[in-house]
Specification:
Largest sheet of chain B: 6 strands, mixed
Radius of gyration of chain A: 13 Å
Radius of gyration of chain B: 14 Å
Structural class of chain A: mainly beta
Oligomer: heterodimer
Number of strands of chain B: 12
Shape of chain B: globular
Shape of chain A: globular
Helix content of chain A: under 10%
Number of helices of chain A: 0
Strand content of chain A: over 45%
Order of helices and strands of chain A: EEEEEEEEEEE
C-alpha cells in the first residue's frame, strides 16, 4: 500500500497564475478530503468527496478554488487565479467507510509570490 | 459546532520519560470518535491512536495511551518512554459519528530532549 500520494511536493508560483494540486487516494478508499494548513488557521477542511461525488464544499474559500474527482483514483484541487494569501500546505486524505481514520498524504507546500 | 482545544502550544520531555498532552472538546453529539495525529518535521500527518466514544476502555498503542474522560470531555495522550523520534506536532481531532468532518485542535509541539 503506497499510501495517499500527492504531487507536487512543493509549488512556487506568481500571483495570478493557475495552480493545480493532485492526489491519488489509497485504493479501495471511498472518501477523499482536501485540507489546508496555515499557521493562523490550523487545519481546515476545504471539501470532501464520497464515491467521487462532492459532498461538502462549504470550506472552499471562494470561487477561485475548485476541486474535481473524475475517478476513484484521482482528484485535483485548482486555484485560479492564485493569490499570496493562498500560500499554505494543502493535504489530501482518504478513508474507507464513514467512521474510519483518515490517511493523509505528505502535502503540497504552495507559495504564491 | 464542535470545538477542540489544546491548551499547551509547546511541551518538552526528557528522553525515556513520560509526557501527557491535553485535549478537551465540546460537543452535543453522543456518537463520535477522537484521534491523535502526529506531524513530524517531514510534514506527514500520521495517525497515532483512535478512541470510539462508546467504548469505556482507554485505547492503547504500544507506548501511546489515552485517558478518555467522556463526562469531562477530555482526551489526553500519554507517551511513555519518550524517544527522540517522538518530536513532532501533535493534533487532537474530533469526528462526528454522523459526518465526515474531522475537526482539529491547534496542536501541541512536543520536543524530546536527549
Amino acid at each position: 500500500d503506497a499510501g495517499v500520494i500527492q504531487s507536487p511536493r512543493h509549488e512556487v508560483t506568481e500571483m495570478g497564475q493557475e495552480v493545480t494540486l493532485r492526489c491519488k487516494p489509497i485504493s479501495g478508499h471511498d472518501y477523499l478530503f482536501w485540507y489546508r494548513q496555515t499557521m493562523m488557521r490550523g487545519l481546515e477542511l476545504l471539501i470532501y468527496f464520497n464515491n467521487n461525488v462532492p459532498i461538502d464544499d462549504s470550506g472552499m474559500p471562494e470561487d477561485r478554488f475548485s476541486a474535481k474527482m473524475p475517478n476513484a483514483s484521482f482528484s485535483t484541487l485548482k486555484i485560479q487565479p492564485s493569490e499570496p494569501r493562498d500560500s499554505a500546505v494543502y493535504f489530501c486524505a482518504s478513508s474507507r467507510g464513514l467512521n474510519s481514520p483518515l490517511h493523509f498524504g505528505n502535502g503540497t507546500r504552495l507559495t504564491v509570490t | 459546532a464542535q470545538t477542540v482545544t489544546q491548551s499547551q502550544p509547546e511541551m518538552s520531555v526528557q528522553e525515556a520519560e513520560t509526557v501527557t498532552l491535553s485535549c478537551t472538546y465540546d460537543t452535543s453529539e453522543s456518537n463520535y470518535y477522537l484521534f491523535w495525529y502526529k506531524q513530524p518535521p517531514s510534514r506527514q500527518m500520521i495517525l497515532v491512536i483512535r478512541q470510539e466514544a462508546y467504548k469505556q476502555q482507554n485505547a492503547t498503542e504500544n507506548r501511546f495511551s489515552v485517558n478518555f474522560q467522556k463526562a469531562a470531555k477530555s482526551f489526553s495522550l500519554k507517551i511513555s518512554d519518550s524517544q527522540l523520534g517522538d518530536t513532532a506536532m501533535y493534533f487532537c481531532a474530533f469526528l462526528r459519528g454522523s459526518a465526515r468532518q474531522l475537526t482539529f485542535g491547534s496542536g501541541t509541539q512536543l520536543t524530546v530532549l536527549p
